[in-house]
Amino acid sequence: MGAIRFVLLGTCQIYWEGQMEKLLAAAKGGYTPAWSMLGWCYHYKPDTYLCSSDFRRRGSSLRTYRAAEAYYKKGMAAGDLNALYGFGILSLLGSWGLDSFPGLRPVEGLASLLSAARQGMPKAMLALGRMLRNDVFREERDIAFQLNAIAQNRMRDKRVLRYNEAGELVFDPDAFHMMHFACMLDEVLADYWLEQAQLSASGCHRSAEPEEITRRMQLALEKCRTFEVGYLAHWQHDIELEQQALE
Question: How does DSSP classify residue 203?
Answer without folding.
Answer: T
